[in-house]
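Quick one, tokens below. Sequence please?
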């Protein structure tokens, strides 16, 4: 049986600021697999947040390994942008609360935001 490749993705504003862009809010893109064998992080200044930037990042990750069959998204606020970027690449998006690996990673990352 064919197993599907799944990426869990979050793209959301963080309590971080870009020191090079007049303290502009930063958005963080996190991509991981359910086993976290893949973990990818990219930061994006608020002024550059759009589906094209996100699509380029997905393509970048896809250069090192195949693009996923399904992108799982748990945060309703990020769903629209992720769906638009995924459509450009012909990828399926699944809204779901079952993103255990991604949520665990977010919990671990919280400490870094506080440093």
């Amino acid at each position: 049986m064919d197993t599907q490749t799944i990426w869990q993705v979050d793209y959301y504003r963080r309590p971080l600021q870009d020191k090079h862009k007049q303290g502009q809010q930063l958005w963080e893109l996190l991509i991981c697999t359910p086993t976290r064998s893949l973990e990818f992080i990219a930061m994006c200044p608020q002024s550059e947040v759009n589906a094209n930037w996100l699509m380029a990042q997905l393509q970048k990750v896809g250069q090192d390994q195949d693009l996923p069959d399904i992108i799982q998204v748990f945060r309703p606020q990020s769903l629209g942008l992720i769906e638009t970027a995924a459509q450009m690449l012909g990828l399926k998006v699944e809204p779901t609360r079952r993103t255990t690996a991604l949520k665990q990673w977010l919990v671990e990352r919280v400490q870094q935001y506080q440093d």
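The longest helix spans residues 100-114. The CA atoms of residues 103 and 109 lie 10 Å apart.
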